[in-house]
User: Fold this.
Amino acid sequence: MDYGRETGEASDTALIPTRFVWPYGGRSVSLCGSFTGWSGHYPMTPLEGCPTVFQTICNLPPGHHQYKFIVDGEWRHDEQQPFVSGNYGPVNIVVLTRESDYGPAILTPQIPAGSNMDVDNEAFQRLVRVSDGMLREALPRVSAADLDVSRHRIAAFLSAHRAYELLPDSGKVIVLDVDLPVKQAFHILHEQGIPMAPLWDSCKGQFVGILSALDFILIIRELGCHGSNLTEEELETHTISAWKEAKQYLNRQIDGIGGAFPRQLIQAGPDENLKDVAMKVLQNNVATVPIIHSSSGNGSLPQLLHLASLSGILKCICRYFRHSSGTLPMLQFPICTLPLGTWVPRIGEPSRRPLAMLRPSASLGSALSLLIQAQVSSIPIVDDSDSLLDIYSRSDITALAKDKVYTHINLEQMTIHQALQLGQEPYSPFGYGSQRCHMCLRSDPLHKVMERLSNPGVRRLIIVEAGTKRVEGIITLNDIFRFLLG
Assistant:
């Protein structure tokens, strides 16, 4: 039954073929909404070759529509799509403004060639072309005024709050002495499950730097150049201080041509405002800024209070504006409508740099080189269809400390798949850690992406296509703050 015609709101020529998708499985799925009077429903059918993804195409008039899914007899809404509270509980929403406006609230998994669907083929092909090739033009765009208002309010909030507000009620911070052997530091980071630690120089009586996963990548690559195997003795005989002074491998920044230069420790005081702390992270390309309290005049040693990160600052923003998000208009817009993140060119607008991806059969050496040369902190690992399998991050290098793997590997012979298995629990299926991959959809509103990125340990979200998990882009904490602070 064509419920769109029954409403009497539009003629046949004004109806818009609109595709709805439920990508979460079930035995029987149907669609119900304001366009059916909340009584009738559209049956949904599974996609060929993807039985957990159900779809249907409805002819709807332009306007604002609410909808829900009936999955195995239960009312459900899609939390990954825009939704509001209505008379029927949480309901998804979609706004159709004209025939070419194929809304972001409808998911668009790839349709295998030859799919047998009971829809008009010409209309469906036009719909696919609109969703795949004209998405950004069809979606509503945030205005310059909305951007200015939102950015001003966020900047005002950050300027009014201080770094000491980031301090947790309880917790610990691991500090390493610069006289520790590199090997021991390597094992400490692995055992504590942390990617970096501040460095303390007892002779100078001050914090002098940060030991990070990037340092270990550089160290292991350097050692690998001296022979086919890495020796434990080489890591044992070099202290952190020796690497800093002799090799200049600590407290460095990789430049655009693969070189490096040393830099001073970037730190902040407890009374600095959160905007200044965030700008220090962005401008100096660091992951954390130590919050250090220094007593002047009484000879007391400086106290390390906290390691501030963009994640903690973002959590403050989300907590403050959670119940007043309407005052920040841009937070309601889907991420694909905003100048945000790095996108695969054929899905989003062309990027200034390509999105780095690798197959699981690529060598660990190539992954480490790409992390350095592309100046990224992680690389999506994909199959031959570019569907997400896992992610390799700088911090994964510490897994080589497990069972002293670094003493008998060859970086060019070990594959990424093998390297990832080192950090997996025995029960992980296929050796891939899907729970390590934090994902989102291009239709997700900005506020939902921000909430996910504010969780501890989440530094980026991989943008995937619903159903296929084909990688479409990536959004990092740095991307969010560069956008929010303009």
Notes: The longest strand covers residues 50-60. The chain has a mean pLDDT of 76.
